[in-house]
Amino acid sequence: MPINSAPSASRRLLSLLSLLQVRRDWPGDLLADRLGVTSRTVRRDIDRLRELGYPVRAIKGPDGGYRLDAGAHLPPLLFDDEQAVALAVALRSAALVGAGIEEAAARALSTVTQLMPKRLRARLDALETAIVKSPGDGDPQADIEVLIAIGAAIRNREELRFDYRSPSDRGDGKLVPPRRVHPHHLLAQSGRWYLLAWDPAREDWRIYRADRMTPRVPTGPRFTPREVPGGDPATYLAARFKGSPGPNTWPCQGEVILAAPAADVVPFARDATVEPLDANTCRVRLGAWSWPGLAATLARWDVDIEVVDPPELRTAFAALATRAAHAAHAASADPSSHQQPR
Questions:
Q1: In this structure, is the dihedral angle defined by the CA atoms of residues 240, 241, 243 and 249, taken in order, positive or negative?
Q2: What is the pLDDT of residues 65-74, one digit of tens each?
Q3: Residue 47 near residue 9 (C-beta atoms within 8 A)
Q4: What is the pTM of this model?
Q5: pLDDT, tens only, 75-108
């Protein structure tokens, strides 16, 4: 039997809205069955949603039904407790996205928290210290309009023309023709946005930082999308950052035995594999972009190191030792290096 009390009607209205959001078309009888009310009550509730600004359209057909269309304006939004907390956490974390939306997100967060009951605000306060800025904060962030322009070109499969400020630019006033690429994926990593695109002139994949891009209008002709090597754009981007032209692995990988307990190594091992051998030694398998870089990374633990494999790592350690000895000799030979700071 339908329940007509005001609190139950409000809950039913929220349930109706939730159902309309998770499925494109709903037969009226099915909605009535899910809500435990009559079809007449469903029609009245649909009218209430329309009065609140939700564009609910009637679907003609043998069974009839309803559809929630995208509106021309933003109607009042209804969230349950979990959705409200998730929204607030996402807004508070907006600074880590690197999309230049911090001010707008802060205003939206203020609006949301003011409307929250005390029990939800208390849960958010407990998360305050959990959201910290990354070491890269302060780096240039991509303009939201640039991201939108890139996203539109990707969605429409149109060639993107843009000016690019690369680190090699000398700023000598020379005119540089705009770059032309086939944009495929827009990815965020460590607070920065990157465009993964196919460069038809070089016949190869290229990665561009969005904060260095200035899109031009109009866009170019349409193109046929390609599959990223390996099939996964995020994995491909991670592999390129590691200097690997193929799989998402470091190009230089070695195995050593460190004279340190595994418990002391694991907190600083990043993506290394650490295997305890006994109470005072462990086996470490680690990768890096170069052999000297791998040797220097392993030397950070400041313990005795036994190289297991490969020979290139032993050669890198020998070169590192030579440079270190030269630096130590140069420092001891310079009298000014022994002067006490004033």
A1: negative
A2: 888 876 545 5
A3: no
A4: 0.52
A5: 566 677 777 777 777 777 665 565 666 677 777 7
